[in-house]
């Protein structure tokens, strides 16, 4: 090394060469003083280098470090460095180390405070242009790093070539690399400050990922999708979701249908097939199991590595936009399962991102889910808080998603969730509630509802934690709705009983009404109920084949008339026989059989009646919308109740045994003519078709504490939905 460098600069050059310099911009790039200018560059695999193919750069002896000194007037930005590789290839590029910082101090301040709703626009990889020079601006958060580099095919995955600059004490690193275009694979190579360990990581804010088993992030093209859902978005903003029908079809995109060779349907193919099917079936929303990028198919997406990336299994981000747009143009909402409760330990992901417990808690008593083998976010850290908040905004804003179903909320709320004594740490007051999570959920729900009126944020929460779906300003967590896990478990346990024993379990049918209006409940029969040995819905039902289908038709009729919004997992609507298997398509062939086809027809008709009848949906969350007719006929296992909306009402009656009940009298509030609008026993649904008159006239016979009554034949294992004629 020649003596033109002072001792400090020599030391810095060595650190650049060894890829451990925390501030490469202080050494590399263009520097001037008085009338002199200097350009320095580290150029591995270089035979010769010059500036603008005019001013020859000098190699520091024994290294790949090059420099040039001259008059300030000799070169100006934008200059190019030309180099000849050892293989004889001529290359030229604009010097990234001559470029000023691009991220504003205001953005950095908001991010550090946890208040940057759109941090995904600041961090990650974004096509960018500076004074006519096109390239990509990379940025990531790694406060524990001594050095962070961008690596990819463009630099032979060599962490020495493109070290980033750190922005003060924020822990944010950035680098604009000219000539890097959309479509490039990249990762961040991070050298830990304390022990010098190297960590090769995908981009936490990356908006597209390599198809598994590859784990690189992809510089994403600016969207070219032209949205055509203005009418939907305008109507959503003014929607009264509390009083509107809400019937959800839960879908795993990888196994709804597949090609004959077992390959996945693309987002576009799903738009072409799934959307018409859901419209035919009458569901108001599709809820997608997580399509956020994940490494393992059999995790169903619940072990997320890409919180900003639609999985590449089914296509590009714009193709996913096409899917959502198609749904909206057919008046179908799209909800997305979102997993802010935990993340996997995969080495390329968030775990120990900069060599420290950055996104997760360092103490495993707060930072690790022992049951799931995953890590728990450190919600008390502003930048982690911001990461998740920004992810929620991203899906609603960039993809027009209509809402989120937040997974495993119970595991987030309780510090002792699935832990033994000594395996958890209490909060500052000595309690078991995770106070940081509570504040996080309140904030996220509040700002999302404020900024995106009409969006739905639903909680999958299985405990009695109070006020999950009450506004944050009233002391609640601010969710729109909560899954009614208690009702689901009670009802499925009841239906699995042999009908001869159901009279001993009658309270399982009625208990749910004691708390039905304490939250805004969704009634879910989800994917979790048809896997891991729990059996499919049809094989949860007792009896022979006829009774199983009759029971399931009865169950769905009961569900669609019961207070609460509805959710049904794919395949359950036609009685798939096998448990759900995420690695194969649904058993569509069973629709060749009348019983399966009949069940599918019933679900479609239930959706239609539910949507068209305000009494069945307008007061799902209001006790004024429900009234028992008779909840005490346990000996015959019969229930009857009213659903109401103002002056209109619907009579609902259910026979939970295979014994027909002829001339069964039901009290009604008004005299007049009644008609059965849903009979789950109809031959149209492959039922036994027990006869009832087309028009049922009321009698002036007081019954069930009502002035009038009607007489019907209750078919075996059936539900009747009855409407007064106008």
Description of the structure:
By secondary structure, the chain is an alpha+beta fold. Among the domains are: 7-98, Sandwich (Immunoglobulin-like), CATH 2.60.40; 105-218, Sandwich (Immunoglobulin-like); 494-519 and 542-726, Golgi alpha-mannosidase II (Immunoglobulin-like), CATH 2.60.40. It has 14 helices and 36 strands. Helix 4 runs parallel beside helix 5 (317-329). The model has no long low-confidence stretch (mean pLDDT 95).
CATH topology of the domain at 494-519 and 542-726: Immunoglobulin-like
Unreliable residue stretches: none
Number of helices: 14
Rg, Å, rounded: 31 Å
Backbone structural class: alpha+beta
CATH architecture of the domain at 494-519 and 542-726: Sandwich
Report how far the terminal alpha carbons are from each other.
Answer: 98 Å
Beta strand %: 25-35%
In round numbers, the mean pLDDT is: 95
Number of strands: 36
Approximate shape: elongated
Portion in helices? 10-25%
Level-1 CATH class name of the domain at 494-519 and 542-726: Mainly Beta
User: Largest beta sheet, briefly?
Assistant: 8 strands, parallel, barrel
Strand order of the largest sheet: 17-18-21-24-25-26-27-28
CATH superfamily assignment of the domain at 494-519 and 542-726? Golgi alpha-mannosidase II
GO molecular function, one term: 1,4-alpha-glucan branching enzyme activity
Function: Catalyzes the formation of the alpha-1,6-glucosidic linkages in glycogen by scission of a 1,4-alpha-linked oligosaccharide from growing alpha-1,4-glucan chains and the subsequent attachment of the oligosaccharide to the alpha-1,6 position.
Active site: 407 (nucleophile), 460 (proton donor)
EC number: 2.4.1.18
């Amino acid at each position: 090394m020649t003596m033109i460098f002072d001792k400090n600069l020599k030391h810095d050059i060595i650190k650049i060469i060894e890829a451990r310099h925390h501030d490469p911009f202080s050494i590399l790039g263009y520097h001037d003083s008085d009338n002199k200018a200097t350009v320095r560059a580290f150029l591995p695999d270089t035979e010769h280098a010059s500036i603008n193919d005019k001013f020859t750069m000098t190699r520091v002896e024994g290294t790949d470090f090059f420099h040039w000194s001259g008059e300030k007037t000799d070169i100006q930005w934008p200059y190019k460095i030309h180099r000849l590789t050892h293989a004889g290839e001529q290359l030229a590029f604009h010097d990234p180390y001559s470029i000023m910082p691009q991220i504003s101090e205001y953005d950095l301040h908001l991010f550090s405070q946890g208040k940057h709703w759109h941090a995904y626009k600041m961090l990650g990889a974004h096509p960018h242009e500076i004074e006519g020079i096109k390239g990509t601006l990379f940025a990531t958060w790694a406060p524990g790093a001594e050095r962070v580099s961008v690596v990819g095919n463009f630099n032979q995955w060599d962490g020495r070539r493109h070290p980033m600059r750190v922005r003060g004490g924020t822990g944010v690193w950035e680098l604009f690399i000219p000539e890097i275009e959309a479509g490039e694979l990249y990762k961040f190579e991070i050298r830990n400050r304390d022990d010098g360990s190297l960590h090769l990581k995908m981009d936490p804010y990356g908006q597209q990922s390599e198809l598994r088993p590859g784990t690189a992030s992809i510089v994403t093209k600016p969207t070219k999708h032209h949205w055509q859902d203005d009418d939907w978005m305008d109507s959503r903003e003014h929607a009264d979701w509390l009083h509107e029908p809400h019937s959800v079809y839960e879908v795993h995109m990888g196994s709804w249908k597949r090609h004959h060779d077992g390959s996945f349907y693309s987002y576009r193919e799903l738009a072409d097939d799934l959307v018409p099917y859901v419209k035919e079936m009458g569901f108001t929303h599709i809820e997608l199991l997580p399509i956020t990028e994940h490494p393992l198919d059999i995790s169903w997406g619940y072990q997320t590595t890409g919180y900003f990336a639609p999985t590449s299994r089914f296509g590009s981000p714009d193709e996913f936009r096409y899917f959502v747009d198609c749904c909206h143009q057919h008046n179908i909402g799209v909800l997305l399962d979102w997993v802010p409760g935990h993340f996997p330990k995969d080495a390329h992901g968030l775990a120990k991102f900069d060599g420290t417990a950055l996104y997760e808690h360092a103490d495993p008593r707060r930072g690790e889910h022992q049951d799931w083998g995953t890590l728990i976010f450190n919600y008390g850290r502003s930048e982690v808080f911001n990461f998740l908040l920004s992810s929620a905004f991203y899906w609603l804003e960039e993809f027009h998603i209509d809402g989120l179903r937040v997974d495993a909320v119970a595991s987030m709320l309780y510090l002792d969730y699935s832990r033994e004594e000594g395996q958890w740490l209490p909060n500052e007051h000595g309690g078991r509630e995770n106070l940081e999570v509570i504040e996080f959920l309140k904030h996220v729900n509040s700002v999302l509802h404020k900024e995106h009126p009409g969006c739905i944020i639903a909680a999958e929460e299985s405990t009695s934690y109070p006020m999950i779906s009450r506004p944050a300003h009233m002391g609640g967590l601010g969710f729109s709705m909560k899954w009614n896990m208690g009702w689901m478990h009670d009802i499925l346990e009841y239906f699995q009983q042999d009908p001869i024993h159901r009279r001993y379990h009658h309270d399982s049918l009625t208990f749910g009404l004691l708390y039905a209006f304490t939250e805004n409940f969704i009634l879910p029969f989800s994917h979790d109920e048809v896997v891991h040995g729990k059996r499919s819905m049809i094989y949860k039902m007792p009896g022979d084949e006829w009774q199983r289908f009759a029971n399931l038709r009865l169950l769905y009729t009961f569900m669609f008339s019961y207070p609460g919004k509805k959710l049904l997992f794919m395949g359950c609507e036609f009685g798939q026989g096998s448990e759900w298997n995420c690695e194969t398509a649904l058993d569509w062939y069973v629709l060749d059989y009348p019983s399966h086809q009949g069940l599918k027809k019933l679900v479609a008709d239930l959706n239609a009646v539910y949507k068209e009848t305000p009494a069945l949906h307008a007061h799902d969350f209001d006790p004024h919308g429900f009234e028992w007719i008779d909840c005490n006929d346990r000996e015959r296992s019969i229930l009857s109740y009213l659903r109401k909306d103002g002056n209109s009402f619907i009579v609902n009656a259910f026979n939970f045994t295979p014994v027909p009940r002829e001339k069964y009298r039901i009290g009604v509030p008004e005299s007049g003519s009644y008609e059965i609008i849903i009979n789950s026993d109809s031959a149209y649904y492959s039922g036994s078709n027990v006869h009832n008159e087309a028009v049922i006239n009321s009698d002036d016979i007081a019954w069930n504490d009502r002035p009038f009554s009607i007489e019907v034949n209750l078919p075996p294992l059936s539900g009747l939905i009855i409407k007064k004629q106008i």
